[in-house]
Amino acid sequence: MRLVLVGGHTETARIDGISAAGATPELMRQTPAADLELLEYGQPVDRPVPVSPSGCPTPAVMSRAARELLGIDLLGVDAGLAAETVTPTVDFGGSVGADVREPEPLPDAEAVVAAGKRVGRALGDERVLIGETIPGGTTTALGVLTALGEPTGVSSSLPENPLGLKRRVVAEGMDASGLVDGDAADDPVRAVETMGDPVLAAVFGLTVGALESGTDVTLAGGTQLATGAALVRHEGVDAPLSLATTSFVAEDDSAAIEELADRLGLELTVTDPGFEHRDHPALNGYVAGEAKEGVGMGGLLARCRERDIEMERFRDRVTAVYDRVTEQRPQP
């Protein structure tokens, strides 16, 4: 088994109030590259650890802790990064996604999906986890779900989900692209081209390719990965597909993740890391409703459970990773 972590950027993240996946809009552009490095090397290289404006650390801290416990292999994917990373990646040739309010925010969607299918078919693993890192990705996910005509609940990295703002942004994007709800139900590439981001395009292609080759795929995340599954289903692929997320997403009523998973025929696994049992700066933001998921966290937590790794041991490793990276991090 390995984790495939797909990184990319969308200028949608620059919309005020959309995302907390970085302390500032400028630092958000660094978040996916930093997440890939933290997961690969145990700390970002020459850049700060991504934190929210309130200081809540990136889910990459949690995923790194799980990876240290599991010893799981990592394959990084550059679907359209805004900042270069020193982590070895497979480059899908994608560009940074434009603001979803533009008429065609991802003109190279078809090429990214095709690259994903090729890599997915070539993985050769019996089982893979597919995760993501992209600020602003729940808004583009909402856009894609709307274009596909699917239920339109998504989660948020913010404690209070700005769903009203996201819906207004998506409505502007749909209008700019000349779409109404469900217009792209029979054309998932068009959905991601007109309302999506490079990570969704890559996840879509990877999942289809891996399933076609007989690989068991678990989408490791929340509503963004569920949106990837929606694209797969609208492609006509009905192979068994799993979604593994955190209790933070499952308990977010605005995300409606159980309803979406059921509608898409996904086997849903929810894992509670029990962060409320410890008072630590690595954990407190999650208990307060920040971040919730990302960087494969839900899938890696589920894998820890499968391997009988107790959540107390996981929490110990999370706090150790956090203390290590915050001691060594460069200042922004």
UniProtKB/TrEMBL annotation:
GO terms for molecular function: nicotinate-nucleotide-dimethylbenzimidazole phosphoribosyltransferase activity. It comes from the Archaea. Belongs to the UPF0284 family. HAMAP family: UPF0284 (MF_01086). This is UPF0284 protein GRX03_00145.
